[in-house]
Amino acid sequence: MTSLYKKEILALLPHREPMLLIDELHDIKKLSSATAVLHVKKDSFFVQGHFPGQPVMPGVLIVEAFGQAAAALTAHGLDPSTYENKLVFLMGVEKARFRNPVLPDCKLILKIEAIRSHGKVWKYKGEAYVNEIKMADAIWSATIVDKK
């Protein structure tokens, strides 16, 4: 199984700091599944304002991290000539549940799976964990589009 780190992820995704949320991608099964790692730190960009004195990672950023992990999985699995000058855009979130707050100074583990694909449209599901406790889960869809 393959692992990707920040440098390889940066080559696959257009996201840059502070919006690049995934730090690593492990256990990659081509176009099928992977496990992403996000180190949620005390100095993460959202900590000061969400919420002062009691910081929590916003749920929308957990969904964004799911999407980035899925985009990296897909981009890594496609033939480079097929993915050249393409982006993966989030189309919709069917379901998202936030079960426990994600607090700074943790390692957020995102287990993602591609459920199906029809041409350029993909559907994924994911679960987020901290210390083996489920924090969130979601089902979402994305599409591959041309860069402009």
Describe the structure.
This protein is of the alpha+beta class. It has one domain (2-146): Thiol Ester Dehydrase, Chain A. 20% of the residues lie in helices and 46% in strands. The chain contains three helices and seven strands, in the order βαββααββββ. The protein has helices at residues 6-12, 59-77, 80-83, and strands at 2-5, 24-29, 33-40, 86-98, 106-118, 121-130, 133-146. Strands 1-2-3-5-6-7-4 form a seven-stranded antiparallel β-sheet. The model has no long low-confidence stretch (mean pLDDT 95).
What order do the helices and strands come in, and which of them pair?
Elements: E1 2-5, H1 6-12, E2 24-29, E3 33-40, H2 59-77, H3 80-83, E4 86-98, E5 106-118, E6 121-130, E7 133-146
Q: In which range does the helix fraction lie? A: 10-25%
Structural class by sheet pairing and helices: alpha+beta
Shape: globular
Please indicate the percent range of residues in DSSP E strands (runs of 2 or more): over 45%
Reported for the largest beta sheet, the result is: 7 strands, antiparallel
Q: CATH class, anyone?
A: Alpha Beta
CATH topology: Thiol Ester Dehydrase, Chain A
Radius of gyration: 15 Å
- Sketch the topology as an H/E string, one letter per element: EHEEHHEEEE
Oligomeric category: single chain
Look at the structure and give the mean pLDDT. Answer: 95
Tally the helices. 3
| Low-confidence residue ranges | none
- What's the count of strands? 7
> CATH-wise, what's the superfamily?
Hotdog Thioesterase
